[in-house]
Design brief:
3 helices; 98 residues
């Protein structure tokens, strides 16, 4: 093969090699995107996680309400215990002395 023909064919082979490498890379990237895209089970996992977060928020809200109610009862009990004792508190009928 003479050098003039080789000078004409070499760029064609280089171009074909680079084009093939780009096409293979694009195919690999497309396959990777298809595997990692949110579809099927991954999408269901995200929905399940969102449902779980909503459930936890509801439970925390319920616990807060119960805590506030318990706190109010505790304050009421403390106020009752701090009041001075009277005859009626000791169990004797009103108007009767002990």
């Amino acid at each position: 093969m003479d050098p003039a023909t080789l000078e004409m064919i070499a760029p064609v082979f280089v171009f074909l090699g680079l084009s093939g490498a780009v096409l293979i890379g694009m195919k690999m990237r497309y396959t990777h995107l298809q595997r990692t895209r949110l579809s099927g089970t991954a999408h269901q996992d995200v929905e399940r996680l969102a449902d779980t977060v909503d459930t936890v928020r509801d439970e925390v809200r319920i616990l807060r309400e119960e805590f506030l109610e318990l706190h109010e009862r505790l304050e009421f009990t403390e106020r009752l215990l701090e009041r001075p004792k009277t005859d009626t508190d000791l169990g004797s009928p009103p108007g009767q002395q002990v």
